[in-house]
Amino acid sequence: MILLSNSLQKFTFVSIPCTNILGVRLVSGPRCSGRVEVGQWGTVCGAYWDMRDAAVVCRELSCGDAVAAVHDAHFGPGAGPVLKGYANCKGSESTLNECFIRRNNAYCKSHAKDAGSLQKFTFVSIPCTNILGVRLVSGPHCSGRVEVLLGKTWTTVCDADFDQQDAEVVCRELGCGPLVEVLGAAAFGRGEGQVWTEELQCRGNESEIYSCETTSPLQHNCSHDNDVGLICSDSVRLVDGGSRCAGRVEVLHRGQWGTVCDAGWDMRDAAVVCRELDCGEAVDAVHNAHFGPGSGPIWMDNVTCSGSESTLKNCRSAGWGKHNCNQTNNVGIICSVRLVSGPRCSGRVEVLHGKTWTTVCDADFDQQDADVVCRELNCGPPVEVLGAAAFGRGEGQVWTEEIHCRGNESQIYSCETTSSLKHNCSHNNDVGLICSDQQGGGLLTVVILKMLE
After folding, report:
1. The CATH number of the domain where 53 resides is what?
2. Which is deepest, 108, 165, 224, 424, by most CB within 10 Å?
3. For 58-68, b where at least 16 C-beta lie within 10 A, e where not — what string?
4. Does Disulfide bond count among this protein's keywords (predicted)?
5. What's the predicted TM-score (pTM) here?
6. Which residues contact residue 350 at a Cβ distance below 8 angstroms, ignoring those fewer than 6 apart?
7. What pLDDT, on a 0 to 100 scale, did the predictor assign at position 103?
8. Does the pLDDT of residue 266 top 90, yes or no?
9. What's the CA gap between 217 and 420, in Å, rounded?
10. Cα–Cα distances in Å, from 136 out to 67, 157, 425?
11. Domain assignment of residue 307, given as a range
12. Cβ atoms within 10 A of the Cβ of 417, count?
């Protein structure tokens, strides 16, 4: 039994063996978040308030798991009586009423005496949520179908009730860069299981979607044909290398792009960045500001990746902003593939010759060459090789060498080449291809090592 008092003076507490007398609610926050109030709606002192206590309140309110147990009137001070004591829950109770309450807590009494005002109390607050996680599925890194974890079940989200502000929060929570685009109509494929029956109402500045308000039920009759997807920008980029998949490595931290120093930088580190950017395999890991010095903060130094990480931020380093170097030590990489100006797995073929991207003549690009390009891009077998600039005319030079792949190579740079093509090719002959993973228009580009110069 929990007793509340409107008086700040000492008095005698009594207990009676009754149940379900006291209620609990969360006030001044979004659904399933707020200041904890009990009984006749008085507040709870923050002394020793922890995640076990928070878990019980979330459970009692059918609000899922506790996310945090916060203090210091995070959701504002209350105006009613104050629980004179503190909850001491084990965490397994079904209601706060079942927890043992330690009374006459000195911490609470001393704060009450500060000015004789409830405004001086340290009130407890709690955000709890049914949303336990969010992920992007069936797309490259930082892109895909939006799914939220409700309890133990991943559910898709209806495109009619997911907007720019919601997407900004998802990108931020996943450690990706700013939002690029919200896509409806199951752009990343139809999900399975349930479609979420609530609507997110984020302001756009939240750090995680569990902090967003929700409304229920949805007015829309949604199916998996309406699964929403989004594209976030990556939290790592390559700069001043002439393509999206070559250049100086820069990482996004606290909303600002910064550089990486080269102490210990090797091919395993480069492999992680190439994979994160969907740029194929690492060709080279360069040092000493090979692509020019950057500006702004130096975010990472002494990076050590195993090579299997999904993102550079998961690799060990000296810590954000900790370094013993300057911008002349910036790292760079060259990856074997880049994808520009269109959907993945289809487009015009281009190769990097030195520092110049060149198109390839359709007369000297065959099925075996296409097999290797599609394989390198993880795009499945080729569907069709298309000549006559089917994906548009490129710019710059047409490559003056012919690729001779056997068809079983894993990367295009492993194929032999011969120089001095016999054909008089122009951009009207730029070759393109469609791999089986996706069909559409765009630019498909492949790096050839400097050995091919």
Report:
1. 3.10.250.10
2. 108
3. bbbbebbbbbe
4. yes
5. 0.47
6. 357, 358, 359, 360, 394, 443, 444, 445, 446
7. 58
8. yes
9. 67
10. 21, 11, 43
11. 236-335
12. 17
